[in-house]
Amino acid sequence: MSRIAITGATGLIGSALATSLRGDGHRVVRLVRDPARAAADDVVWDPAAGTIDAAGLEGLDAVVHLAGEPIGASRWTDETRRRIHDSRARGTDLLARTLAGLERRPAVLVSSSAVGIYGDRGDEELTEDSSHGDDFLADVCVAWEAAADPAREAGIRVVHPRTGVVIAKDGPLIDKVELPFRLGVGGRVGSGRQYVPWISLTDEIAALRFLIDRPLEGPVNLTGPSPATNLEMTRALGTVLRRPTLLPIPAFAIRLLYGEMGETLATVSQRVLPRRLLDAGFTFRHTTILAALRAAFDRTAA
């Protein structure tokens, strides 16, 4: 049995990971911000204030760092951009420095990143060796990964899961598009040719556990093995929900409704491949976007 700490443990991915680990008998330590809501095994921290209960992290086997301000919750004002950046860079730096200073350090820090690091790349196939983009999210991801350097320098194995769009019933994508699709007014965004770097929640959790156990370091793409375009995803969602998908959504409409945030998340194209996962022997449960969507809506996979 291992003792594994998780930041962001109440989020979609964190809560599912905690449930999976506990189901196999592992002890999960949550990092929480509110002392009043902390359970006996929880560790209290406040990334914004730069405080953390270091003693509670002694003797851990692994740490999975998932915490960060949501990027798709609202328009990107200057203040929102600051929170998105600082919640990742400062939080990771605080955690990495704290782990580096422990007497009994964890063997591994799985410190989140995202496919946003690649920027808008059309139909170019992107692997962990691909160059970084030059937009806001790419800059955030570069700073996010670099902030883990103190742990790396202290001899802790650090791996960065560059996660794509997680396909889950309550996930950030389906949460936004389910209602219009159920009403029969869903459709592709713009040309529909932009690639969406998706992964099912089941495979996301399995991959994170794979990264804890396997001797991988540095960036690892957590995306499905068969990249799908927005049009392919739209048709698959229509199939699963048994609704028409004939009404295209103009890209300018997304910009008007959600600003740069909406335009970036809906129209940027990232054809990301999970090369390092596959090379290391990881087996995906859901290999197509249709299978991932069927699983999200509890439909029998075709």
Reported by name, the CATH topology is Rossmann fold
Distance between the termini: 37 Å
What is the H level of CATH, i.e. the homologous superfamily? NAD(P)-binding Rossmann-like Domain
Weakly predicted, low-confidence segments: none
Top keywords for this entry?
alpha/beta, 9-stranded mixed beta sheet, two-stranded parallel ribbon, globular
How is this structure best summarized?
The chain has 302 residues and is an alpha/beta fold. The chain contains 10 helices and 15 strands. The protein has a single domain, classed as NAD(P)-binding Rossmann-like Domain (Rossmann fold), CATH 3.40.50.720.
Sequence-ordered SSE layout with sheet pairings:
Elements: E1 3-7, H1 12-23, E2 27-32, E3 43-46, E4 51-52, E5 62-65, H2 78-100, E6 108-111, E7 113-114, E8 125-126, H3 136-146, H4 149-153, E9 157-163, E10 165-167, H5 172-182, E11 195-196, E12 198-200, H6 201-213, E13 218-222, E14 228-229, H7 230-241, H8 251-267, E15 271-272, H9 275-279, H10 289-296
Parallel strand pairs: 1-2, 1-5, 2-3, 5-6, 6-9, 7-9, 8-15, 9-13, 10-12
Antiparallel strand pairs: 3-4, 11-14
